[in-house]
TrEMBL record:
Signal peptide: none annotated. Residues 4-230 form the ABC transporter domain. Coiled coil: none annotated. This is ABC transporter ATP-binding protein. InterPro entries: AAA+_ATPase, ABC_transporter-like_ATP-bd, ABC_transporter-like_CS, P-loop_NTPase. SMART domains: AAA. Keywords: ATP-binding, Nucleotide-binding. The keyword Nucleotide-binding applies. GO terms for molecular function: ATP binding; ATP hydrolysis activity. It comes from the Bacteria.
Amino acid sequence: MVTLELKSVEACYGRKAVFAAATTPEIRGGSLTALIGPNAAGKSTLFRRIAGQLRGAGQVRLRGAEPAALRYMPQDTAMTAALTVYEAVILAVKQGQAGWQLSARDLAAVDAVLARLKIGALAELHLAELSGGQRQLVSIAQTLVTRPAVLLMDEPTSALDLYRQYEVLDLLRDYAAETGAVAVLALHDLNQVMRSCATTIAVANGRVEAVGPSREVLTPTLIRRLYGIDARIEACSRGYPMMIVDGPGRA
Ligand SMILES: Nc1ncnc2c1ncn2[C@@H]1O[C@H](COP(=O)(O)OP(=O)(O)OP(=O)(O)O)[C@@H](O)[C@H]1O
């Protein structure tokens, strides 16, 4: 079982502290965890701190996996446009590996991830030729190809059409269930969170405001506190909880 836990974690840029002491209970692998909060709340900053790109006091405790088995997919992925899709995913396989030789296993992993994301037909295209959504799917392929034990994905569905958003979330949920990976996704769509993510971490104003099962955390009270929005939680025709937005909260 892979788990991730934050103990009084500080995350700052120079003297500007975004989090002074973020603490969570153990986040267990095997299902998706949402990281939610308003713009500039610190979601990307917390990912960078967990991924080791920012330093600070406190402890990021990873159990059941090595730090090298963590992959962070930033919101804006810089891609070298001269590469083809296939080459870009190969490059992701070789990251952290010694040497440039490709094994049959590496090639099979690339083929498998492209097939799973249904982008095999794009393999020979250059990244510059892709649409925004296609580029996001390639980033997801690069993130998943090494089968990481910990995934931190910053708004992984933001450029995808509605069908693809749900397809990718289902794929990530299946991946976490199959591998036992801890998978934390920063998401803005709370309906997607309620449908796909077992656990939710809510952040705002440099604090972890709530952590727990999504259905318990995502209450109208919390939504109003985080976003200033009046909302109700009802059930859709398939029984999933749905947030109905009534509008900005009245003073
Ligand atoms: N490189 C940086 N240097 C200094 N401050 C930064 C830097 N990156 C982000 N910040 C600041 O840190 C705070 C948190 O930003 P962050 O990008 O983590 O928010 P977020 O929750 O991911 O927002 P969004 O939902 O808009 O993507 C903001 O006040 C932002 O201005």
